[in-house]
Amino acid sequence: MSKTSEKFEKRRLRSSNFTVVISISLVLFLLGIFGLIIINAQSYAEYIKRELKLEAFFRNEYDAKQQDKEIENQANYIDSLKTQHVFIESTKYISKEDASKIAKQELGIDDTSLFEENIYPASVQITLKPDYVDPSKIDSIKSIIQRNPIIDEVVNDDQLMVQVYNSIDKITFWLMAFAGVFLFIVIILINNSLRLKIYAKRFSIKTMQLVGARRRFIIAPFLLESAVLGLIGATIAILILGGLWYYFANTVNYTLWNDKYTFLIILLIALGMIIAVLSTLFASWRYLRLKTDQLY
Prior knowledge:
With 296 residues, the chain is an alpha+beta fold. 71% of the residues lie in helices and 8% in strands. It is built from 8 helices and 4 strands. The radius of gyration is 32 Å and the shape is elongated. The relative contact order is 0.15.
């Protein structure tokens, strides 16, 4: 009879552990998907910000004899932009010839007689770092770039920049808000799964306490077991998430890996273990404080 009871207890324990692991895996997997959405939304937002370029036009007041000197001054200025200003990520020089070709393409004109002279000034396209693509910072950046006397004008599409920035800001805000709500739901679900597991062992906890075992001695094995279950659940979630991401990235030829994915993996493992341990700690402590007749 005792052997049958022991087998039943072990089977119930395995079933309880399996349920907890599956619950942790499921909620962390869903949280991981949400994390991937946020990471890639941020990457796409940075890509869009890099497309909002400034264009600095050089003065077109030099004659042909000064052309070499003009080009040298422009090259020196571009080099100084890269080294002296932290807000600049990259620059691209557009010569007068290139500017004329671009104008022909945009206007749909093939007749070269209209472009006998290089009437368009040379310029430099400036890509800002994403953190500096902010309507409140653009005017001061433009004034800094325009301080050099060889620069005639610095232009950008202010209206488009404001619209894009505001849209990105709203999307990021709501994504982070949903992430916070979803994290709260994850904590609740993992906590409930482990509370049910501890509830099934409440009599064993109280029995050890009645025979003189210290609270720390009673709780320690449960905490260790919960940490292991949290680690296993997080590992399963990461493996499934990684497999799906590998398939998706290869299907659409998307970037397979970056440093933010490493942070997401560490976050999922930490959340799985920390939430599991804290939930077990609070649930175990609750039953240790109850009287025997309150366990029923």
